Amino acid sequence: MDIYATAWIWATNSGEDNFPAFATLDGIPPNTNIYATTSVSSFSQAVDLQTGVAGTVGSVVRRWEIFNPDGSISQIEPEPDPANNSQLIENCASVTFELAVTNAVAWSQISLFTY
């Protein structure tokens, strides 16, 4: 495998609602097979003093696009799953990552590898 691209996502939220940040890596040429990965590299969570509930952080491969045989592009968006932190994508056109935080701040590294 070779590194194709890498970047960072950053998100912060001081409330109880989920706040997602998205990053898309695109411009991938046809016939490129990609292994997409994301991992939270640092976070700081707060604790609601009234409820005792701690903040949460999650980073996933949210959706991707593939080239069809006729050259058109189709989007694939799986059901949300915290285990979707890596994905093999054949004939990849783009990959979108999501970093979701609730009452926390976090950084996540996203990477694309060719295989």
Task: Reconstruct the topology from this structure.
Layout (H helix, E strand, L loop, with lengths): L1 E12 L5 E7 L8 E12 L10 E12 L5 E4 L9 E4 L2 E11 L1 E11 L1
Cα(first) to Cα(last) distance is 5 Å
Strand content: over 45%
Sketch the major β-sheet: 4 strands, antiparallel
Number of contiguous helices: 0
Number of strands: 8
What integer is the average pLDDT? 94
How do the helices and strands follow one another from N- to C-terminus?
A: EEEEEEEE
Radius of gyration: 16 Å
Helix content: under 10%
Strand order of the largest sheet: 1-8-3-6
The outline comes out as elongated
What low-confidence regions span 5 or more consecutive residues with pLDDT below 50? none
Task: Specify the structural class.
Answer: mainly beta
Structure, described:
- With about 120 residues, the protein is mainly β.
- It is built from no helices and eight strands.
- Strand 4 and strand 5 form a beta hairpin.
- Strands 1-8-3-6 form a four-stranded antiparallel sheet, with no helix packed on it. A four-stranded antiparallel sheet has the order 2-7-4-5, with no helix packed on it.
- The model has no long low-confidence stretch (mean pLDDT about 95).
